[in-house]
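Reading a protein record of the kind used here takes only a little practice. Think of the row as the fold of the chain written in a discrete alphabet. A record is reproduced here so that you can trace the correspondence yourselves:
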Amino acid sequence: MTSTICHDKQKIAAAFGRAATGYDAIANYQQGTGVQLLNRLKSILNTQQIIAPLRVLDAGCGTGFFSQRLKDQGHIVTALDLSMGMLDVARNKDAADEYVCADMESIPVNSAQFDVVFSNLSIQWCESFHGALSELYRVTKQGGVIVFTTLAEHSLNELSKAWQSIDGYSHVNTFLSSQNITASCQTWCHELSFQQDTLYFPDLISLLNSLKGIGATHLTAGRQTGLMTRKRLQHLASVYPRTQQGLSLTYQTVFGVIYRD
């Protein structure tokens, strides 16, 4: 199944497609947040005494890392991603029961199809945060649940400030504030929690590769184009804040649960 996506999102899909084959080896932060999200979902289902099999949509599934885990738990999993390259990797390891290449803001399925929607670090790529959640809500059955993670304002702040000190440009994505995220969820019965996650790298190359390796090379806002020359790279390394643990990169992680009325 496929759907039409805008030109900007085609670039995002292409970036993730290029990263697909090596994604799992480098996506430590994504895997960490996904494990936490999976544990939250398990707790919700246990509390409500809901058992498998459930129809689950993994929205923004990437390589199917968590589609596979949901399937292994006995659920019937639909893996959806904007990137056909990512879906090919998921399909090759038989991560799900069905694969859909589509924009999660316009999912080509009828309403009320899934008991659970699981979305780990994908909604921040959408044009409209509320619009994306509305679409996930639409495809969820009454009594079902949507669990998601996303990023909030000040994520990648160290990298942004280092670049700004050089040329006045952020060079990184612009993320919604926690207040805007909270306001966007007021339509539904929901739970939100926020946590700060800091990763450390031995050098700037490995830090930048962690972003490139997860497909985050097409930055949707605040980016100034220009070649990353050796001189610019050395300049960036010279102004980047260093700690005893190494070069830090901080994510403001948002965990959300929406209950389908």
Q: What stands out?
A: The longest strand covers residues 246-259. Residues 28-47 form the longest helix (20 residues).
